[in-house]
Amino acid sequence: MVDRLSIQCVWYDGHMSTVFVTGASGYIGAGVVRAAKRRGLRVLGLARSSATASLLEDAEVEPITGDLADIEAMRSGAKHADAVVHAAFDRNAYERLDAAIASEEAATARLLEVTGSRGIPLVYTSGIGVVGDTGAVVVDEVADPVTPPAMAWRRALEQRVLARGGIVVRPAFVYGRAGSDILRALIASAVERHGLVYADDGQNAWPNVHVDDLGEVYVLAIERGIRAEVLHAAGGEATPRSVCEAIGRLVGVTASSLPLEHARRVMPYADWIAGNSIRVGTARTRQLLDWIPAGPDIHEDIEFGSYRIIAGPGHGRKATP
Asked: Is the separation of the CB atoms in 85 and 123 below 8 Å?
């Protein structure tokens, strides 16, 4: 475990060298860590348990003991860093959303306090859900979104971060490296039920981003000195139908349609997946960062890539040479 008072911050070539990441052992946070380590940056991570600390150390991340409610841990991380990335979120959000939102609001306030006191950037993790159902309209980074009431709290936090010169990253649906609770649940359901369904016609737009491409957005934003900007991290666009059909090909089952009221009974996360049709523009993000997503397409990664291990032996076809 790292002594909070012993960490030294080293600069090179005028660029920042140390990043403090909340949620460094999580799905998105680990992507940020990998991107930072590829550039030789030093990474500090918030560790709320000895088990988390061990995971971070294995990833060559220096743990700082504490959690999102620990202001001293936050201050310690910010004190010894050149930028802070907030990639943590309450893991019980699906079951206790009100509590998760309250925790997020308090944690963001603490992080704005500690980054503001040092004049270093905070990169805040939001989500494209704040733009709501766009239909066929593409909403870019500078547009004032028509935020659904259920996401108003997230939009309010975005505005607080931007007002303090912070950076807001809106990830699309994140996939890759066999991650995503939703994809894993859909694959497991297809294996267990020997079939898979999608709701209605399954044609609502579902933007996505590979977890490693997402990690690059955070680090590039910090390296390039971006301030008070919204960044859209979306590398591709799929539909629930196309994703379920890719899972069907992986598992060797048929993906079929059911009305939403029936799909809810057999399809994991049915309402979330079948909800809004969202289209977001990424031109400004790509221009500011010179960001070019390089991860595999979501359908390829499901059928031929990292998700094959979830389906188990005997499932999936080999990729054509």
From this structure: yes
